[in-house]
Amino acid sequence: MGVLLLVVLGVGLVANAAVLLPGASYQRGYFGAGALQAERLPAGSHVTGHVRAEHPFSVYIVTSESGYFENVTAGSVVLRWENVTEVNLNLTTSEGAQYLVVKNGNTGQEIEIAFSADR
Q1: Residue 43 covered by a domain
Q2: How far apart are alpha carbons 105 and 78 in whole angstroms?
Q3: Residue 89 is part of which domain span?
Q4: If we measure between CA atoms, which residue out of 16, 92, 86, 89 comes closest to residue 56?
Q5: Would residue 40 count as lying in a domain?
Q6: Which pLDDT does position 18 carry in this prediction?
Q7: What is d(CA 9, CA 1) in angstroms, rounded to the nearest whole number?
Q8: What confidence score (pLDDT) does residue 56 get?
Q9: Are the beta carbons of 45 and 119 closer than 8 angstroms?
Q10: What pTM value is reported for the model?
Q11: Cβ proximity of 60 and 101 under 8 Å
């Protein structure tokens, strides 16, 4: 019984290790209608991951020196996915300041954001 418990704990730690590694981010939380969440992406990195929810939301990869995203302009948007329920990320960031910006739609909901970045 003790060995089985150790095996189960070990599998759980390995499964969660990606979340704890540098360059990795995992969040699952409640977003109110129209709420915004921004995560800075490591510069010059290959980013993979996903953003998922039950109801529509939008995701933008944005360049910004200020970190202010309320009025995202077309010139600052590198990539966009609008009114979707899932985004699979697979991109390479530039050397400048880039952010993953998630904007919830008009229904409050839980949104899962998970990504990792490798240089």
Answers
A1: yes
A2: 20
A3: 31-118
A4: 86
A5: yes
A6: 42
A7: 12
A8: 98
A9: yes
A10: 0.78
A11: yes
Residue 108 CB neighbour total at 10 angstroms: 13
- pLDDT tens across 59-95, in order? 999 988 766 666 666 678 899 999 999 999 999 999 8
User: β-pairing, 46-63 with 98-104?
Assistant: antiparallel
CA angle 29/105/110 to nearest 5° reads: 20
- The span from the CA of 61 to the CA of 59, in Å, is 7
Domain count, the chain: 1
Question: Left if phi > 0, otherwise alpha if psi is -120 to 50, otherwise beta: which for 66?
Answer: alpha
CATH number, domain containing residue 49: 2.60.120.680
Polymer length of the chain: 119
Kindly tell me if the per-residue pLDDT of 32 is higher than 90: yes
| Direct distance between the N- and C-terminal alpha carbons of the chain, in angstroms, rounded to an integer | 42
Instruction: Please answer whether residues 116 and 48 qualify as being in contact, where contact means their C-beta atoms are separated by less than 8 angstroms.
Output: yes
